[in-house]
Amino acid sequence: MSFFKKIFSKEKKETLDKGLEKSKTSFFDKLSKAVAGKNKVDDDVLDNLEEILVSSDVGVNTTLKIIDRIEDRVSKDKYLGTDELNKILREEIAGLLSEIDSGNATEFEIPQNKKPYVIMVVGVNGVGKTTTIGKLAYQFKKAGKKVVLGAADTFRAAAIDQLQIWADRTNVPIVKQSMGSDPASVAFDTLKSAANQDADVVIIDTAGRLHNKINLMNELTKVKRVMKKVVPDAPHEVLLVLDGSTGQNAFEQAKQFTAATEVTSLAVTKLDGTAKGGVVIGISDQFQIPVKYIGVGEGMEDLQVFNKFEFVDSFFK
Ligand SMILES: Nc1nc2c(ncn2[C@@H]2O[C@H](COP(=O)(O)OP(=O)(O)OP(=O)(O)O)[C@@H](O)[C@H]2O)c(=O)[nH]1
Ligand SMILES: [Mg+2]
What we know:
The chain has 13 helices and eight strands. It has 317 residues and is α/β, with parallel strands linked by helices. It has an eight-stranded mixed sheet with strand order 3-2-4-1-5-6-7-8, sandwiched between helices. Helix 4 packs antiparallel against helix 5, helix 5 packs across helix 12 and helix 7 runs parallel beside helix 8. Bound molecules: guanosine-5'-triphosphate and magnesium ion.
């Protein structure tokens, strides 16, 4: 398949378009109101645009960056028409996202020389960690990989049950202990088991809530340390899951987690049920960590590898 065909695979594109429906509708409604009765981009239009971007949860810093760039273009072309604003915005946002190297993977891939490849999934409670793990297990398995899940969220009995449900649904083995057991010990067992089975990918679920934040961060550190006893360079990836529908809260969580523990990639979930899709643009720009996956629904197939070009394309369609 050609590169472009792969990028714009029809089916994938349709889910993304549909998933971002709410964000788009709200964004374009506001945008058309902002330029109503105007035929050129003037200060008024720019002020309105700033408001729209901020209210779409792009975030203040990223919004200012975008407005600066558009002002630049306006100063070069005083008669820049409002009919062109859409195109220009799209170009500037795509340009902004291209500045961080988030790669442009279109498939669910893992490095071949790391076996098992260990992904530790972190994030506060309710953001969609377990669901994202289930979706990832499904995709990796579909790609022919041998997957093992580790139920290291031992804080709640239901957390273990929920991961078990995804293990059954995707027909992937799970390693678990009883509620309240040591998460690091579960992670250790999972890696051992994965090594014995010659598995390709290990995905470790972790608790999103403990008695307090310090406890949680200490626990994550301990889980990491213990995993290294089995696989010295594990975890290969620390995936922070953020709920896109919480807008500015997601920024706040990203700030706190990245300050407390090393995060290598981001997954932004629940973009289907929200008008806050702009949060992906802001988060990509503000954190030097690539958004790797986006969640656009509760189903097994509702996870996509984040592709900035495709995303901007969907957002502005
Ligand atoms: N609409 C939608 N719902 C999602 C998405 N991802 C997760 N959810 C839902 O969000 C809720 C919480 O998801 P979980 O996967 O249990 O979240 P968690 O981070 O594991 O939560 P804890 O185990 O409590 O820490 C569930 O009802 C999921 O179905 C998504 O991309 N879109
Ligand atoms: Mg969970």
